[in-house]
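Sample entry (140 residues):
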Amino acid sequence: MSTTTAVAPLTIQDAEILVTAARRAAESAGVNVSVTVLDAGGHLLAFRRDDLAVLISGETSTRKAYTALQLNAPTADLVDLVKPDGPFHSLPTALDRPLLFIAGGIPVHRDGHLIGAVGVGGGAPEQDHGFATAALAELV
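Predicted structure, serialized as tokens:
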């Protein structure tokens, strides 16, 4: 007889922690960002765009989160896969969904299970990745 252990889903409270932590990290670096948090089904749990963040950052943060969720990998780890000689080269245009292979999206796991993703846009890709990583570190 096998037992199944339920894994708590990503909650609104978790999403608020992620948004606050990412924004705090970005603010300390002097960068205005947008932060998106999606649940395991790809549904929006939280979104925040700083007043002075570039407008497109809202779209990029959401696409980064979606890409990290769907591929269960940080978008920073996927960038080389879509280069002309990469195995995922045609993936961004083959799908009808908003994938974005730029650093700044990170999947969120709990007890080894994928429960959502966070995406940050507005800074340089390496900065956005760092802000998302800082946010994830706050979610214990």
